[in-house]
């Protein structure tokens, strides 16, 4: 029994020029849309994550309270539930799955929100990491619709350094001959494990490792136990082509890649009229605070509030550190009341 | 015609318990040892580097001036010139090459310096990155012999985060089936290229990439041109087992792994009586300044002087940024005059 629904998008022409035929957007909702349709929140997923992996920030008494809000979690294309290399029929399957941008994702989420429910205003868009990238995109692409955004541990455009980090992840995954250029019948597990190890150095901070939080904080028995148990365990169940599809989306994230802005990044930032609370992780190694500072400086109604955490990128999720969850949750509460 | 010499070490019993039989230490000297034998400087090599790749910091008018000093550059074991997986005869060749520590390296360098030349005091030991690790080791293992040390962009012990970064490098290299567990007849070029891409995100800083110094500073035509031309070009000519042997050395670097200190890191740091100038790169992603701060705080005669550079780890080498070379060279001049 699937715990989510599918919105049939039909044929979607993508920014890359390809068409995603019979596109499907998988989503889950929490809470009820009220009569005036003004209690909706959109909360997109992160790299490789699915809607259930967003639930650590949803709950009674939390900012994202299903008793007050109608919370919609759309699954990002490529994540295995929405249209992905692993679930798209030939000839557009696997290695032929087209490049889907963050803009494409959000345009389809917009259709879901407006066509299915007739929602005209969103109380909030919020997300972690690539979820933050989709959040920025909502603000830039549909400024009239979004009252508030809260992107955390993410950026409005993928930086060149972040792009290079991802090149390393991709190279490790595809170095495995079992990948077969994407035409594998069995997952390239050696490559998946290799990419997990590459990721491990980036996902948490230097201080996290120095203070042995893999052991003292997360309860693993040793560093190797953590590398296998947390990191390999995170990526091994995922499909390689799906991971590469989302990686492509990530590498091409740019809110100004939109005819309205013509590649002018500062203009796109300036168009985000939503009240914005931008929360980088203070020790995030690949979405560093200085990129968020630049973005906030070019947005008309934005506040920068770094998460004072030594958990690196994982200050933002997926709910691994209770103190960070509390910080984010309280910030969202205040934002929603403003 | 080789431009270096070989010091025959005989059979060397290693910290790992193995014996490096017929061990060879390749080295090159610059300048002449004076009659009182008090003008010697040791300048070990870095990860994957050979003596010629240290020469950017040697020259007339520079701190390391061959007209004044006798500069000895010992090649690290595993680098293809000193005993390495690629040049050791069976049965200790290739994947069977034993683990060699930084301590083992320096103990052999000590023999070269004392047995071959009868040198009793070193004016300076200096090095970048793993060369810095050997420099710290000289200070801790032979405190009576070393007057000054100048480790830059390196650490006295490999941090847990740095260890994890290297796990990613190793996983990418060995994910290539052509590696064949180290028993390849042809180099695993896909794995070498993958490790180069993993390395690319770590070797330079986020600001380096943000300011497009790959293009504006180093003259590459594009980011991809840089990834292939600089990074793949750096590692592709090297032997995979050699790279893994040096990576093992790096992961196990620890000046306190010495019977004298019994794993007490602070005690080992406290034993470094040499005047020390410790220069981390201000934006180094894997040998971060905070680790150097800790070390300096526990050393009796040490000064911390971060290299004010946005070139990340490559602030320290191999001579890619003239401003950084000047900063390091001037610091070394002052240190040598002190």
TrEMBL record, chains A, B:
Gene3D superfamilies: alpha/beta hydrolase (3.40.50.1820). The active site is at 129 (nucleophile), 284, 313. The keyword Hydrolase applies. Transmembrane segments: none annotated. Residues 63-303 form the AB hydrolase-1 domain. Pfam families: Abhydrolase_1. Keywords: Hydrolase. One of its GO terms (molecular function) is acyltransferase activity, transferring groups other than amino-acyl groups. This is Alpha/beta fold hydrolase.
């Amino acid at each position: 029994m699937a715990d989510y629904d599918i919105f049939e998008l039909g044929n979607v022409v993508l920014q890359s020029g390809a068409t995603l035929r019979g596109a499907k957007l998988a989503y889950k909702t929490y809470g009820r849309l009220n009569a005036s349709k003004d209690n909706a929140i959109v909360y997109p997923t992160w790299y490789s994550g699915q809607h259930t992996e967003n639930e650590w920030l949803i709950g009674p008494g939390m900012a994202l309270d299903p008793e007050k809000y109608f919370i919609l979690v759309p699954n990002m294309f490529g994540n295995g539930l929405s249209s992905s290399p692993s679930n798209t029929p030939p000839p557009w399957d696997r290695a032929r799955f087209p490049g889907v941008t963050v803009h494409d994702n959000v345009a389809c989420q917009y259709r879901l929100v407006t066509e299915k429910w007739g929602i005209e205003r969103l109380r909030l868009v919020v997300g972690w990491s690539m979820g933050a990238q989709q959040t920025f995109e909502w603000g830039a692409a549909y400024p009239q619709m979004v009252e508030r955004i809260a992107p955390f541990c993410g950026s409005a455009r993928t930086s060149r350094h972040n792009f290079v980090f991802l090149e390393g992840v991709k190279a490790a995954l595809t170095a495995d001959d079992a990948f077969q250029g994407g035409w594998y019948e069995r997952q390239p597990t050696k490559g998946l494990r290799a990419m997990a190890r590459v990721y491990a150095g980036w996902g948490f901070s230097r201080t996290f490792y120095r203070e042995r939080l893999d052991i003292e904080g997360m309860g693993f028995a040793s560093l190797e136990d953590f590398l296998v148990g947390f990191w390999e365990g995170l990526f091994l169940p995922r499909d390689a082509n799906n991971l590469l599809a989302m990686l492509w989306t990530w590498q091409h994230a740019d809110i100004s890649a939109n005819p309205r802005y013509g590649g002018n990044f500062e203009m796109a930032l300036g168009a985000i009229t939503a009240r914005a609370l931008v929360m980088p992780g203070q020790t995030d190694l690949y979405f560093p605070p200085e990129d968020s500072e630049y973005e906030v400086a070019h947005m008309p109604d934005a506040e920068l509030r770094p998460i004072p955490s030594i958990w690196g990128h994982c200050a933002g999720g997926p709910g691994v550190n209770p103190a960070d969850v509390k910080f984010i949750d309280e910030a969202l509460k205040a934002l929603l009341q403003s």
